[in-house]
Amino acid sequence: MDFDALRYNYPSRRNVIYGEKGMVATSQPLAAQAGLDILKKGGNAADAAVAVAAALTVLEPTSNGIGSDNFAIVCMKDKLYGLNSSGYAPAAISIKKLKERGYDVIPKHGFIPVTVPGAPAGWAQLSERFGDLSLEDAMSPAIEYAQNGYPVAPTTSFYWQRALDTFSQSLKGEEFAYWFETFAADGRAPAPGEVVTLRDHAAALEEIARTNAESFYRGSLAEKIGEFSKKYGGYLDTGDLAEYNSEWVQPIGINYRGYDIWELPPNGQGIVALMALNILKGFEFAERENIRTYHLIIEALKLAFADAQKYVTDPRCMKVSASGLLSSAYADERRKLIGNTAMLPAAGDPQGGGTVYLCTADSEGNMVSMIQSNYMGFGSGLVVPGTGIALQNRGHNFSMDEDHDNCLAPRKRPYHTIIPGFMTKDGRAVGPFGVMGGFMQPQGHVQVIMNTLDFHMNPQDALDAPRVQWVGGKKVEIEPHAALPIVRGLSAMGHEVSLMHDAGGFGRGQIIWRDEDGTLCGGTEPRTDGYIAVW
């Protein structure tokens, strides 16, 4: 990657960051610093990733927690490894049982959408296979922040208050009382800069670190989760936890403009970004701020989502292979469907979500792209009493249609929104990238990669640039700093365009690129409290 050629191509509102010995980029400054501290103590990129991921459960609980899932693409000595730490549905749940209870759709909150949390297993697996330090060492900054307190960042405070407003109206059962006791004990969300301590959370993290996550799946923490679920009619039990393991998988990729773009295979939606890029590489783009550019991005994403919404689920249940969806012949066929006006694809309506993304790099050339999420902010609205463990609600993405590929079934993983990305060239790592935020994520991946490779932007510029988001049908949201002629031009082509002022709806990303000499170049998200810690 020629950073000098990229440096002055596009006016940036923030400076790109350079480093040599190590770099950590994420959405929370204290979490980024935690990762850098681990690098300075002799840890590698994997150790730093675990440190940041665990710290973010404390520092940004509005987006993730101990009860989250996570995914990672790990690059060690220029070889890529994929880690799928997403959980499956409980063995006891079924569509028939839910319909007998009067459910036509899977609710957002409560125990029904709770799947087995995969994040603690992911931390343990990543540490055991690639870490130079112990899991206890890597998780020590997170435990310290939870035990001794930390000042809440502004964006986190905003989403904390928004969650409290929502939950105060919607969460009425006794089982939700523990969320309010944990995150709103005095009836309000913390203000920016206010110091928060989460001592139950600290104790749970300590137990996970000490037992290499065994307690969470086959020990005392598992028993507490199982008891809580049983008391309130949940389907998740200790057997579901005991039989869970993270899965090492092979990343999937396509070549775009001479670079290989990598995502994890389904059940994640990274394949959406790859399908869209496969379609878009058949076009030439003269400039980014151009009506045609925006139109083609939107239409390619629609086609990719239409396929993903139909086919993507637990790979054991997919009727179409990932390689088939990513074939050049299929991309050619889909590309022919794009015309000069907005189309109506057959796809579901994308929804929002709460997620954290992080990337790390060390002096040996090792790099990690990692993403972690409860989903929809705080997730299910459930916190296991006495543990601080906020449970995710990933099961909400299942379909209740028994004929749908992504239908709910026991021990099945759902269509998953969170996706880490990675870029290589000629077998060498260029670096990790990611844009978090529900169904915006593959859309953000596409735009960040195009900004980098089509429009020659450096990492910070690639993140700063205005984003567009397809949200269903012909509806499109665009950021207000996009040029007015773009908005008018898209409207004239049949797109139903809305200006969206909530920056969080357009995802929050991080990038670290490495040049041939080993210099690291990072960009962090202007739409949140993004920060790069560098050495």
Describe the protein's architecture and organization.
With 535 residues, the protein is an alpha+beta fold. It has 19 helices and 21 strands. The protein has helices spanning 3-7, 29-40, 45-59, 95-100, 119-130, 135-148, 154-170, 177-183, 199-210, 214-218, 220-231, 238-242, 270-280, 291-311, 322-325, 328-335, 441-453, 459-464, 484-492, and strands at 17-19, 22-26, 69-76, 79-85, 150-151, 195-196, 247-249, 252-256, 259-263, 356-362, 367-373, 383-384, 389-390, 421-425, 428-436, 468-472, 475-478, 496-499, 508-514, 520-524, 531-534. Strands 1-20-19-15-14-9-8 form a seven-stranded antiparallel sheet. A seven-stranded antiparallel sheet has the order 7-4-3-11-10-2-21. It has a three-stranded mixed sheet with strand order 16-17-18, covered by helices on one side. Strand 14 and strand 15 form a beta hairpin.
Can you give me a brief rundown of this structure?
With 535 residues, this protein is α+β, with helices and mostly antiparallel strands.
Spatial gap, N to C terminus: 20 Å
Helix-strand makeup class: alpha+beta
Strand content: 15-25%
| Percent of residues in helices | 25-40%
Main beta sheet strand tally, sense and closure: 7 strands, antiparallel
The neighbouring-strand order within the major sheet is 1-20-19-15-14-9-8
- For the residues shown, what is the average pLDDT? 93
Overall geometry comes to: globular
| Count of helix runs | 19
Would you report the number of β strands?
21
Low-confidence stretches: 1-12, 347-352
CA-atom Rg in angstroms: 22 Å
